[in-house]
């Protein structure tokens, strides 16, 4: 796997994680979605549209990546979102993150990604 592809896969994961963070911002500022008017209010929610744009861009990038490499090679990079989203939630949303999450969970995700991409020769 080339450095360019790894960079694009990382960008893809960053775009998805950013989209998730911005969707949370939309959820914080949107009216309750328990009624039709709540759903309609999303049409004027800038955070919602930004999140959709991030997801749309990520989708186009994903299709480009899949034209270059196999899905089995690309998909493990989606796991980077499990690392990026909590970091973004901490810094941008003020959410708390348990140190055990990072001490164990992140280490295992990174080790698994390394094993799949480097050692397994995928």
Structural class: mainly alpha
Gap from first CA to last CA: 8 Å
Helical content band? over 70%
Strand/helix succession: HHHHHH
Report mean pLDDT, rounded to a whole number.
88
Task: Report strand %.
Answer: under 5%
Please mark out the parts with pLDDT under 50 across 5 or more consecutive residues, or reply none: none
User: How many β strands by DSSP?
Assistant: 0
Number of domains: 1
Give the overall form.
flat
C-alpha Rg (nearest Å): 17 Å
| Tally of alpha and pi helices | 6
Report on the biggest sheet: none
Describe this structure in words.
With 122 residues, the chain is mainly alpha-helical. It has one domain. The chain has 6 helices and no strands.
Could you provide a short overview of the structure?
With 122 residues, this protein is mainly α. It has 6 helices and no strands.
């Amino acid at each position: 796997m080339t450095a360019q592809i790894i960079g694009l896969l990382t960008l893809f994961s960053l775009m998805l994680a950013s989209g998730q963070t911005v969707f949370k911002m939309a959820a914080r500022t949107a009216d309750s979605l328990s009624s039709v008017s709540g759903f309609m209010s999303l049409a004027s929610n800038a955070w919602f549209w930004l999140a959709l744009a991030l997801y749309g861009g990520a989708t186009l990038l994903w299709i480009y990546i899949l034209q270059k490499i196999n899905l089995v090679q690309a998909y493990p990079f989606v796991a980077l979102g499990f690392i990026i989203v909590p970091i973004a939630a901490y810094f941008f949303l003020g959410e708390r993150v348990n140190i055990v999450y990072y001490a164990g969970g992140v280490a295992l995700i990174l080790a698994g990604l390394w094993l799949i991409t480097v050692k397994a020769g995928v």
